User: What shape does this take?
Amino acid sequence: MLGFGLAIEPQLWALVFVMVRIGAAFIVAPVFGAIGVPLQVRIALSAAIGVLVLGTQTITPPAEVFSVATFAAIGAEALVGFSLGFILQIAFAGPLVASEVIGTSMGLGFASAIDPQNGRSTPALGQFFSIMLTLLFLSVDGHLVLVEMLVRSYEVLPPGGAWLSAGQVQGVALFGGYLFLAGLLLALPVGFLLLCLNMIVGMMSRAAPALNLFAVGLPASLAVGVIALAIAFPAMGDYMLIIVREGLSATERLVLGT
Assistant: This one.
């Protein structure tokens, strides 16, 4: 019942109720939540996965649509979905931190482009890292793992009792610290070389005060940064794969509690 003497098809109401958690995850999660993904595609994917959930799980939606208990249940469903997508978004933000560190040291802080994930202006190096991380995420079937965790979350966190515990919320908050750790470790190989270069340029400026630092330091930083990126990128790619796996593992811990 709608609550005003009006009726709604029970299966349709159950599908809409299930789609709340899935749709909330797709709004925040990387790849699915990219601005280039049309809203119609997200709704269609949410409906398709919702049908899968209804076929494998016994879902009992609230009896009335317009009631306080129903609004609270919908808020709990949205919270679970947002949390699942937000954990992966934290992992994807690590390379952006690395790009800020490297780009500022190289003098590429002024070079920016539109990030296809969120539609905002980001450093060009950060967009490159983001695209590489997205490709690695898809190569290890991260999108399928996310869908699997969404389906399995209905077993561990059934609708109506899906409020996250204090430990689960704390786990999401603590995983936010991994954002800075991953960014700094990813930028460490190139950042260390650029730091050594800046120290050398600083000593040269003390030894020869008439030396134009902008004419010497900026081209040297760009050259050393590009060469260091070319040499260190295989190792950085391996660590990006670790970032993806850490994000997926954090998603599993949130759902399964392990």
